[in-house]
Batch of 4 targets.
Target 1
Amino acid sequence: MTDPLDDLLAQMPPADASEAEIESFMERVMNTPGGAELIHDFAGKITAGGSLDTMLKEEEAAVEKRSLKSPARFVIRVSLLGIEPLIWRRFSLPADCAYVHLHEAIQDAFGWEGRQDHRFEIWEEGQLEVSFSASEDGEDYCEVENRLIDLFRENVSEFQYLYDFQDKWRHRIVIENLVRAGLNGTRKELRPHLHTGERHGPPEDCGGPPGFAKFLQGEHPLCRKYEPEILAEFKTGHPDFEKITLR
């Protein structure tokens, strides 16, 4: 037999419930054995110093840490390596952006779905020197805590973004300019802005550049998932950049 309180909590009102529905539910919880203790315990957690209060404050601090405020903008060009004709994008981001902001901009601009691992790589004379990623247990630096401006100050304006360690989609990143917001096609809003580019990005899980070449030739198993006009769009079409919104 299930606990009456558990049964009641399973019937919790939806997020759009009216105040009357919520009050009625809370009254039933309070009148159910163990309900008053449950409410008291929850109230203690959300008051100052409680566990939920601490979690909320930590979340707010993390959001504030990622917020962008710079009046300057990086103008960045990103190209997919190993593919001809070239697939590339140009966009701008506030100059205090972290690597995670650039990661999100690349994902949105190329149409990636974010289902695979990724990392940023700084190479010098053929050697991998530094990398940034979202991994918490690897050797990479944290992409949330580190910002592009620090790399730029070290006179590094070109590096790489690797997406999907199996298909190995390598992107060449070039910081083309650092300008005041509103210049060189940049906007004053504190968000990434996609300027232009060429060609549609590849579909996920198509096998990297070699697999994408077969896809364009109609020789890949993934081709069966697309209508002929969509396959033709991959070959010769260009995205409508006005419809692409970057996070």
Target 2
Amino acid sequence: MVYTPTLCFSCESGVTDSKRIVLGITGGIAAYKAAELVRLLVKDGVEVRVVMTQAACGFITPATLQALSNKPVFTDMWDARVSDNMAHIELSRGTDLIVVAPATADFLAKLANGLADDLLSTLSIARECPLLVAPAMNRQMWDNKATQRNVAQLARDGVVILGPASGDQACGEVGMGRMLEAQQIFNEINSFLQPKLLAGSNVLITAGPTFEAIDPVRGITNRSSGKMGYAIARAALDAGAKVTLVSGPTNIDVPSAAHVERVESTNEMFTAVKKHANAADIFIGVAAVADYRVEKTSKQKIKKTNRDLNLKLVPNPDILAWVAALPKPPFCVGFAAESQKLHEYADAKRRRKKVPLMVANLAQDAIGADDNEITLLDDSGIQTLPRAPKTVLARQLVAYIAKLYSSDKTRIS
């Protein structure tokens, strides 16, 4: 089953329009995290219907989930609020996704063996939409061979398994079985709902700053945080692409599904890009690459004196121009951070380097920030994506790249 919702550029998250999710909660201490998950989903504009097992009600009350979701909470197979008394059928119809968090060992066993003895297990089996489960249990229960068989069977059946993680557990032990945090599950839901516009594509991305050494302790760098590059890597993964991320020095968590190569200098980044460029379908040069490096790096720390220090700088290789000039180049996207004459300078850069798309922004507004405004320049003209979180802009940009890339493939073929 291929699930492809419609992308909505106008909504805050950039995910889908009119999302509807059933959140199932089973009886584990991690049920308290479900309250935060509901809050995050509702804040994102999702309609959440909560279904709880009787055991779950012993850990968190339906009243709490009803207050957070602004919807009735269902616990009973025979709930009279459903006109035909078939809540197990009606609740899943018209739903984009069912998520069970936490999913206990008992519930996973039911699903894997087709058992349906309460509302949540029955509607999970009678569904017409994808099912995601976030396991939560003691480490020994998780490691039990029966649990592992059940999880493997669910994966074969097309159920998406989120986690678990390793960490402190309520029993006082430490190990695998801890449910993912609410924010992590929310991120996975958002990722799952993205249209797979780049399915089957190999995307090569550079991100972050570069560092050009002067001596063992000093260097030339810039204030790029890498946030936009990493957001684009995440968005490309969510769009179904295989992503290789060549990253300069950053403090950002790497998307788990990306292949990452850590580099420091521009030459190191260039070497990594050359290694992967021929296999790439799309190249996105987001990194703030240093234009110059010191001609001769000192092997020892340069001692301070009262005299001027003169450093000879030489040009670094132009990575984007090199990729664009390959005999069979990938679809190339460049970034231009300017401090003035944004459209003029960015379009000149696009034409000079012969790339089909240039993404431009004012450096003083974007570097280090969590949000941004970007301008897209290609052969069709200029359009601006209004200021928004970089995660939102990244998804909008990836959708635009996918459209141009698809047109480019059609034209070439």
Target 3
Amino acid sequence: MIWTLWKKEMESYFSTPLAYVLIGLFSLISGIIFFNLLVSYTDGIQSMPPNMAEQISFVEEVVLKFFANVNFLFLIFIPLITMKLFSEEKRLETIDLFWLSPIKEWQVVLAKGLSALGLVLAMLFITGVFPLVIWGVGVRDFSLLGTSYLAVSLNACAYIALGLFCSSISGNQIIAALLSVLGIMFLWMITWGGHLNSNYLVAEIFTYIGITSHFERVLRGILGTQDIIYFASFIFIFSFLAVKSLGRRNW
């Protein structure tokens, strides 16, 4: 049943211009960002004495900055993907068709979440051409490439779970998207608040609750148990809230 729903959702994405527009825009913007970072790195190398050029890290200046920008792009793109998952169904009243079948709420949430993740992974797949470009220009430093993709993928899963919940509580796509954007920004601001707080305990709590600190750790290849627990808990909690939100029809 989940597989059938997933295929239906993927077909609904790619049967409309939405998926192609989002993938095209994401590819264009990420391509421009990658090109600018690569040019800046090359100019920096050429403008420095040969004995100091080695101090500029390609991973730091290009790879990590690129994936940090990809994470920022997800602030806009993922809410656009998730906003219609339940809001559109509610507006058209087609969501009632699910409840007339033996399918459970958690199966609907899981199928829709996986379909959104499938579209996001398709967007990330396009960026796979950039390592080939790097290889072509003679750079062989791919030390953090795998963990960088893992970091943005985990963040994407967390944003999708949040977006699912926002879409489940609103019958308006725009409101669902705005709630998702505000929720993601709030998660970023919590981490910044932890960095600015002088109280050590409060700062540690804020830093752990905020998603940015965990993203940066995984991005740099420091994947710990606390990060795995954080992302797993985050995804579970908001998926659970989405299931409960859908279940209110029985209350």
Target 4
Amino acid sequence: MLSRRNAIQTAAILAAAAATGSRRALAADKVIKVGVNLSFTGADAENAARIGNGAVIAFEEANAAKAVPRYTFQLVKLDDATATAGQYDPAQAATNARTMVSDKAYVAALGPQMSGAGKAMAPILSQGNLAIITPASTNPDLTDPKFAQQYRPAGKAIYFRTVATDAYQGPNMANYMADTLKVKSVFVLDDSGAYGVGIADSFQAQAEKRGVKVLGRDRLDPKAADYAPILTKIKSLGPQGLYYGGVSQAGVKLAKQAYEIIPDVIKAGGDGMQTVDLLKGAGFPAVEGWYATVASPHVIEDPIAAKFSDRYFARFKQHPDDYTITCYTGAQVIIEAVKRVAASGKPVTRDAVRDAIQGVKLPTSMLGPIEFDEYGDLRNKIISVFQIRKNTEQPLDDPTAQYKYVGVAPVA
């Protein structure tokens, strides 16, 4: 049994411990949630992981360095793809947006990968005033003031980008095909998605403007297995080039079957065809020679990105790509925005963070200067062109090895 003196001493120790615990609890970092919404299931899953890991690195580094004193970032993964769709699913994307908006701990988000997901998410995020920065979705409608009522009904810009849009990606590739590849005729395909239709439309309009004869336009069903009838029709028309607007689910099958039916036609697509999923799903020799664009500067091979690439490889045992960099940069913008709000003494709320993101300027990011216009679009608009050229000395499913950078696409 405890003596009275011992009991008093024990009570004092427990009280002191409780007080210390309380002080520690008061001193504990506040947790800030940031969602990363990408297509982690289905045809684009591996590319999503490669992109999303850019955010993982950024927030791990920020937390380790105490970039924002008294705050800790918690990155929450949200998958907008479903097994039923086999790729991104707009309904799931909308559900993810509602999940984030309903939880006040979320102050910002990264993603999505696909414009169709973005169109489902944007109105919901607008009503919740939750800013999202996309490292990859490029459909221009999402930030076009003509569609403000549809995609930002609450008024303020909430959809920001660290990439250019298809208002540049499609037309600039049309310029490249006309000027560099000397293509005189082309057939255009899309996969019926928001991204695919939009980029194909913009490519076609610029191709026609440049005097490239568009011999036809058709649409692929991403879930269909056989594209032979469409490709046989294309073969009968004899175009010099084929342009595909779309993502991997249809793109993998298109690459395989086009190699068999129209092997000598010059083939090109947007960033939906610049993925590890295409290399794995279609493989060589089917993918050999395809051109693809990326809606950002190509910096992976620059010395400025070397240290990041080393850190990334050490962490994930794979090489980053350009959209890993755009995601990392988007995360840097969010970190900087939170830092500014916290330093001002204001509460770190999603409203304050949104306003801070709008005004952020990063003069020395790996992508160059980062600044958004009033609609959320990146002011720096560069489209990079790649061609798949087999490099037998490197893994055949490594996009950093198999996509050869061939230059900046001419401005539309």
